[in-house]
Amino acid sequence: MNLASLCAVRAAEGRRVAAGLTGAGKFGSMFLAQVPHIDGLEVPVIADLDPDRARRACREVGWSEERIAATRFVEDGSDLAAIDGVEVVIEATGHPRAGIRHALAAIEAGKHIVMVNVEADVLAGPVLARRARQAGVVYSMAFGDQPALVCELVDWARSNGFGVVAAGKGTKYLPAYHEVTPDAVWTHYGLSEAEARAAGMNPQMFNSFLDGTKSAIEAAAIANATGLSVPAEGLGFPPCGTDDLAHLLRPREIGGVLEKPGMVEVVSSLERDGRPVFRDLRWGVYVVIEALNDYAASCLRQYGLPTDATGRHAAMYRPFHMIGLELATSVLSAALRHEPTGAPRGFHATVAAVAKRDLRPGDRLDGEGGYTVWGRAMPASRAAHDDVLPIGLAQGITLIRAVPRGKPLRFADVEITEDAAVRLYRECLQGESSAV
């Protein structure tokens, strides 16, 4: 709260918050659409591999030619981070290795970093957040994206004295989706390939939402920021509508589906036979809370909250998220309050690369949403024990061993260069990014 007022004060003082955007794709474009309407915020620099595409994006979202002419366009996010006057760097490329590189450059330059790139956050976020704290800058998750919104709900519950039984998001899911490839993705979105191409939609990116990978990545990000656990065998995606959250998302010992209290889970908007779930939460987020004393439990009922049979569990949810249209909340929070809208505090979960089909030596991995692997959420301790290859590193590398369909890949299965992304991931696993 009060961010708009604080931002207006900065504007009146002639010290507008200056944010640099790296990656002018859909998320970045949604943010840019709002910038002209926020008193005290400006984006003087945009980095994109194709600066002309970034200029077109600015025009498409309604920027004036004068604003575009006054904006500097560069190709490299690391160059953007070094530009004087930029307070906050927004990393929105979606590429984990690039995101790590840009975040390190921002921290080195003393700039706050808003990490839209959840792929990079899940791969190395705990180390990046620790380094940012040591440098006196903010490392923040992106408000408007579901992980940060879940973190807000969890923080609300804990700061008001409730137990957090479960938290997560909704999505469209069926078990068969794990093996969907970009060739078949558009039928699940009700589009033809020609329609999708005309709209500039990337089949691999959209497939990552469908095959469960994006949900696994976002669940791991939530776990690392909140200390909640992910299921030992990966997300269950139980079909569940808003009316049933408090009944279903509770421990098995009292009739729910969770291994234990304090879990991240993603609920499906489809029943297993494909029928739509009643009052689904496909676009939203939720938290299931527990009243920790009899008086609080009685208040839940008195004030109309639907509870489970015990009377102690209730759910709060947000039915939609607005993605980049809400991103300014993170930018302003970092610049004006020096607070993140969610940040990793430990390495509790990662996302394993799992074979979509029988893979053979010589196969080239193509990353999330592709033809070769999908991502399964996994406790970090198990990933460390089994030396599992994370989905964020499973792109552009070659298999040297066969991996059966449905099995997680290991580092020993691939030929991989020990670069900064690999080193930071291993540092996370070693626990050197422990909570503060």
Features:
436 residues, alpha/beta, Rossmann fold, Type Iii Antifreeze Protein Isoform Hplc 12, 6-stranded parallel beta sheet, 17 helices, 15 strands, disordered C terminus
Report on this model:
The chain is α/β, with parallel strands linked by helices and 436 residues long. It has 3 domains: 3-144 and 324-337, NAD(P)-binding Rossmann-like Domain (Rossmann fold, 3-Layer(aba) Sandwich); 147-173 and 212-320, no CATH class; 349-429, Antifreeze-like/N-acetylneuraminic acid synthase C-terminal domain (Type Iii Antifreeze Protein Isoform Hplc 12), CATH 3.90.1210. It is built from 17 helices and 15 strands. It has helices at 3-12, 26-34, 51-60, 65-69, 77-81, 96-108, 118-135, 146-159, 185-188, 193-198, 203-210, 213-226, 245-248, 294-302, 328-337, 380-386, 420-429; strands at residues 17-22, 41-47, 72-74, 88-91, 112-115, 139-141, 163-171, 263-268, 285-290, 313-318, 349-355, 364-366, 373-379, 395-399, 414-415. The strands form 4 sheets. The protein has a 6-stranded parallel β-sheet, sandwiched between helices. A 4-stranded mixed β-sheet has the order 8-7-9-10. Helix 7 links the parallel strand 5 and strand 6. Helix 6 runs parallel beside helix 7 (118-135) and helix 7 (118-135) crosses helix 17. The longest helix is centred in the N-terminal third of the chain and has 18 residues, at 118-135. It is globular and about 60 Å long. Residues 432-436 have low confidence and may be disordered.
